[in-house]
Task: inverse folding
């Protein structure tokens, strides 16, 4: 199969290689990847392996399952956030722990579905699990047009919170997806950042969560949550795709479209 692999931790350390389709360990499902989404800075995240396949979220169709796997069956259209400590999904096939796979939203494409897991789970966990956002509270979201930020705005509104801009007074919750000066300047009773560690802010790493993913899929299918796609690239243009993730002025997610 074709797979994007990182040989050195930088964009020019990426190449598209021909490698074996992964074999299945117990508890895993083999997914034919239709789309895999990218996250800014992900090539800088710590790695205990090289070469490494990047992209930690996918949408696709189950091709096969390991013996005894009952969570999913071949033919199921699925999406997932996959673990950071193993190869990701920028490839034609990916072996995924079957318990992490949820049915993909039915009313949107694979590209739009692949844009959801990492970013929308980050938004959900940042706002609700770590930020304890309640209806009626005022929330300031930095990087509101970005991959995580655009989901955070929609989820916060759906929860009944009021979105405030910098300069509109102290917020009950700051949810930061930008880091740097925007994080330093943000004033809030509670400050949660997914972008960087900082004094006075709770930093967290998003965790796979199938139950939350099922709720997110229902919100997408209900038209409440709309994934925004900044741009799509074929696997062969993975370097250009990662370059796009690092640019300013994006609207939503950068996605590799692997197969139609
Ligand atoms: N800890 C975790 O588990 C986790 C999970 C997801 C994401 N992340 C990290 O969180 C950050 C946001 O991810 P994302 O996918 O939402 O990124 P993104 O799509 O690039 O969005 C970031 C947003 O922040 C804004 N921004 C303001 N100041 C910025 C600056 N100095 N540099 C870059 N952007 C700036 C950008 O808007 P303008 O360009 O329009 O100003 C952009 O829309 C990334 O660093 C990512 O690696 C961490």
Result:
């Amino acid at each position: 199969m074709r797979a994007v692999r990182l040989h050195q931790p930088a964009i020019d350390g990426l190449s598209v290689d021909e490698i074996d389709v992964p074999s299945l360990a117990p508890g895993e499902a083999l997914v034919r990847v239709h789309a895999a989404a990218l996250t800014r800075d992900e090539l800088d995240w710590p790695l205990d392996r090289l070469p490494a396949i990047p992209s930690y979220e996918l949408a696709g169709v189950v091709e096969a399952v390991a013996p005894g796997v009952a969570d999913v069956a071949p033919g199921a259209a699925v999406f997932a956030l996959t673990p950071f400590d193993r190869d990701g999904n920028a490839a034609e096939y990916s072996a995924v722990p079957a318990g992490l796979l949820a049915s993909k939203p039915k009313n949107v494409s694979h590209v739009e579905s692949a844009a959801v897991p990492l970013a929308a789970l980050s938004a959900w966990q940042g706002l609700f699990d770590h930020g304890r956002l309640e209806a009626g509270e005022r929330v300031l979201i930095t990087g509101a047009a970005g991959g995580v930020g655009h989901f955070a705005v929609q989820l916060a509104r759906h929860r009944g919170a009021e979105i405030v801009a910098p300069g509109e007074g102290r917020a009950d919750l700051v949810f930061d997806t930008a880091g740097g000066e925007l994080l330093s300047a943000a004033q809030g009773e509670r400050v949660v950042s997914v972008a960087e560690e900082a004094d006075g802010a709770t930093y967290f790493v998003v965790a796979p969560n199938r139950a939350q993913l099922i709720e997110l899929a229902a919100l997408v299918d209900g038209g409440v949550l709309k994934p925004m796609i900044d741009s799509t690239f074929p696997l062969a243009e993975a370097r250009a795709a990662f370059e796009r993730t690092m640019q300013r002025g994006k609207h939503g997610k950068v996605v590799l479209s692997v197969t139609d």
Observations:
- Residues 39-42, 118-119, 122, 143, 145-149, 177-178, 180, 182, 194-195, 205-206, 248-250 surround NAP (CB under 6 Å).
- The domain at 2-116+227-257 is CATH 3.90.180.10 (Quinone Oxidoreductase; Chain A, domain 1).
- The chain has two domains: 2-116+227-257, 119-203.
